[in-house]
Amino acid sequence: MSVGEILQSKLRPRESGSDPAWRVWEHKTFNIHRGVLHWRPAAESPTFDRISRSIREQVAASYRISWWRGFAFGALVEAPVVPEDVDAIESVIDVRVNAKGTWQWTILACPPARTVVGVHTWIEGYLSPVYRGLTDLYREQGYEVGTVRKEKDGLMKFLTTVAAWKRIRFEEFKP
């Protein structure tokens, strides 16, 4: 199986503009809008701060985000080196809705080092199987894979506790 085959299980490829380093994938219906950006930065050594800013810029350029449907996305970055500030990877993942697009997960793969670092938000969503499929693919290819889940912030912990007390059940919102 390949990266493209895993992405095609839930998304369709889209035109990504003039930069061949970016591949843009999308799933869009009346009530759901999801995307995955696959980026292979140039041979330079980008910092994770630059990577995250570039991803946000590409989201803004590639997807039309509507307030009533929302938008969530994941990012797969295949970089030539592991950035020195890779520990910032968790800081970009959203734990609740973001009007500019909810960043659900990031996978940073470094083929020369055969290393993968992944972070997924605490909530399971439409793109979660894609995240797991990609990390499994790299593991099967012999990469050293480290993956973590970004947990709820204080507000979300409170809301999930209240939901449990009131016996409110949402499929994607499991207290």
Which properties best describe this structure?
globular, 26% helix, 4 helices, alpha/beta, single chain, 7 strands, seven-stranded mixed beta sheet, 175 residues
Are there runs of 5+ residues with pLDDT below 50, and where? Answer: none
The major pleated sheet works out as:
7 strands, mixed
**What characteristic shape results from the CA principal axes?**
globular
Q: Give the CA-CA distance, first to last residue.
A: 34 Å
Q: Tell me the β content.
A: 25-35%
Structural class: alpha/beta
Question: From the alpha-carbon coordinates, what is the Rg to the nearest angstrom?
Answer: 16 Å
Mean pLDDT score: 87
Count of alpha/pi helices:
4
How many domains? The number is 1
Helix content: 25-40%
Along the chain, the helix and strand elements come as HEEEHEEEHEH
Write down how many β-strands occur, each being a DSSP E stretch of 2 or more residues: 7
Strand order of the largest sheet: 1-2-3-4-5-6-7
Structure notes:
- The protein is an alpha/beta fold.
- It has one domain (3-150).
- It is 26% helix and 27% strand.
- It is built from four helices and seven strands, in the order αβββαβββαβα.
- It has helices at 3-8, 48-62, 128-140, 154-165; strands spanning 12-14, 22-28, 33-39, 72-78, 102-110, 115-121, 144-150.
- It has a seven-stranded mixed beta sheet, with helices on both faces.
- A hairpin with a 7-residue loop joins strand 1 (12-14) and strand 2.
- The radius of gyration is 16 Å and the shape is globular.
- The mean pLDDT is 87.
